[in-house]
Structure formats: structure tokens, C-alpha cells
Amino acid sequence: MSAYIALQSWKLAIVSDPLGFTSNWAGPNVCNYTGVYCAPAPDNPSLLTVAGIDLNHADIAGILPEHLGLLRDLALFHINSNRFCGKLPASFLHLKILHELDVSNNLFSGPFPYVVLYLPSLKFLDIRFNQFFGDIPPEVFDLPLDALFLNDNKFKSLLPVNLGNSPVSVLVLANNLVTGCIPPSVAQMAETLDEIILANLGLTGCLRPEIGELKELKVLDLSCNKLVGPLPESIGGMVSLEQLDVGHNKFSGPIPRGICLLPKLENFVYAFNYFTSEPAECGRLGDGNDDRKNCIVGRPRQRSAAECALVGANPVDCLLAGSICPFE
To answer: Which example biological process does GO assign this protein (predicted)?
Structure first.
């Protein structure tokens, strides 16, 4: 009966359902509702309970009512690519076995949905492509998640020093206003991290050598930030790396030879920086190598001599970067 109350309350909170996903949401047998999936109840396998909601790509408009907290056996809640707005219900606190929460590509707004910090079973959190704003709480990086997608919101926050506490395999923060420096704690993610995308944030300072500890990392995207100084030689030890994008920053100095010798590297983008040389080995990447708009003598489509001279006259000493990124 509680599931019926929850879903009927939700149906009343829907203002547009052009594809008719909820047209059969009638009657007490909620397991027959489109997008509702039932399974044996954890505390009584002889009974069916609502274990999953999947209304992805339904183009539904409405809000999420507090009654959804009655679905206490819910393990999966997927409603991406709709027009839901408002906030996530505080009653989600009761969803103690919720494993996956995907509300991406909707119209949710307001501060970070703190209720997600209190879901003990959560492993997959996707709130990207919404209009959440304000700080990203550092506590989110202490959650035992496997995947975290916060990208394409309106967050305005500092990148927290405990970033490396997160055990995720995939972390995407891109296209927010997240400033500061990449903390040395990132090295703690070495055993789990496969993909990290920190593009178009506003990150500053030098890229610390600890980044090279990420031996399992396949994708590293730091493009469109304000990072300075040379690329660490330690990146040449990231033997699993397939995609590396550091384009549109303020990096300078030579490209470390070890990077272009990485055995699995397919694409290396370092365009729109101030690099002064690149090893011949980078040529093996062919079209996967993008060196435009740097200061590399003898290469086409580089910056003007005047631009390069200006940066060359004021080199960045990353040994002094503690004054920019005072983590200690």
C-alpha cells in the first residue's frame, strides 16, 4: 500500500507526460506500472516490493514528492533526460538500500542535494546537467561511491583537499566553477580511478607530480583551466593512460618524452599552451597528437614570437607553488 501511495502521489505531481509513460499508473498492482520494477522484498522474499524506477528519456515534467520516501526497498532510481524540477525530497533519507541514483539531464536546482550524503548503500551518483549551485560539500568525496558525475551544473566551489579520499572509478566535475589546485591526495585514488574529467573548471597552480601515481588511469582531461608550469615527468609512468587532454591551459616548458612513449596512449592534446618543445616520439600518435598554438619551433600553427617571449620571460617555478596551493 505504501508503494501505491508513493506512486500515485508522484503521478499527481507530474504536469506533462507526452509519451504516456505513466498512463497505466492506476490500480493497486504497482508492479505492472511502466518504469516500475519489482523484486522479492529483502525482509520477506515471499512478497514483491518496488526495487527499481526507470523513467529515463521519458520527457516527463513535474516534481518529486516527499511520498517517494515510502519506497524503502528502492535500489535503483533512474530518471535521466526528463524535465523534473525543484529539489530532491528530504524523505530520500529513508532509502537505505538505494544503490544507484541518476537524476541527470533535468531541471533540478538549489544547493547541492545534501540528502545524498546520508544514503549508506549508494554507489552510483549522477546529478549532471542540472542547475544545482553553490558549494560542493567535501563530504561527497568521503562517500564509498564507484562513480560520481557532478558536471554541467552551476556549482561555485573550491576543489577540496580530501578529493583523493574518494574510491570512485569515474569522476566527472567538468563545466562548473570549481577553483583551486589539484591536491596531492589525488595519489590515494591510484588503485581505483579509471577516468577523471576536470575540464573547464578554473583550476590553477602547477600539476603536482603525485598525478603520476594514478597507474590505472585511462582518461585524464584537464583541458580549459588555468594550470601553469611544466608537465610532471611522472606522467610518463601512467602506463594505462589512453586519453590525455591538457589543452587550453598555461603549461610551458618541454613535453616530457616519457608521455609520448606510453604504451596505450592514443590521443594527446596539448594545444593552446606555451610548450617549447616536443619529443619526436609524439609523432607516432598521428592525428591523435594536437600541438597547435604552442611555442614549438619548427611546428606549424604556433603562437607568435611575442606571445612566447612574454611567457618565457616569466617562467613558473613549481617548487614555489606552495605559495599558490598551500596544502601543507
So the answer is: cell wall organization
Instruction: Let me know the angle formed at the C-alpha of 173 by 169 and 176, rounded to the nearest 5 degrees.
Output: 175
Give CA separation, 96 vs 53, 142, 146, 167, 245, in Å: 15, 17, 17, 20, 38
Stretch (H or E) spanning 39? strand 36-41
In a shared domain, residues 106 and 159: no
pLDDT at residue 322 in the model: 53
Same domain, 191 and 100: no
One DSSP character per residue, 72-119 reads TT--EEE--SSEEEE---GGGGG-TT--EEE--SSEEEEE--GGGGG-
Domain of 66, CATH number, reads 3.80.10.10
Residues 224-276: tens digit of each pLDDT: 999 999 999 999 999 999 999 999 999 999 999 999 999 999 999 999 999 99
State the pLDDT confidence band at 76, using cuts at 50, 70 and 90: very high
Task: Give yes or no: residues 41 and 172 share one domain.
Answer: no
Q: Ramachandran region of residue 110, left (φ > 0), alpha (ψ -120 to 50) or beta?
A: left
Are the CB atoms for 255 and 274 separated by under 8 Å? no
State pLDDT tens for residues 182-231. Answer: 999 999 999 999 999 999 999 999 999 999 999 999 999 999 999 999 99
| DSSP annotation of 240 | T
**Cell numbers at 107, concatenated:** 531541471
Residues 143 and 186 in one domain: yes
How confident is the model at residue 66, as a pLDDT? 98
SS3 (DSSP) at 185 = helix
118 lies in the same domain as 139: no
Domain residue limits at 55:
1-124
Q: What is the CA radius of gyration of the chain?
A: 24
Indicate whether 101 and 144 sit together in one domain: no
Q: Give the global pTM.
A: 0.95
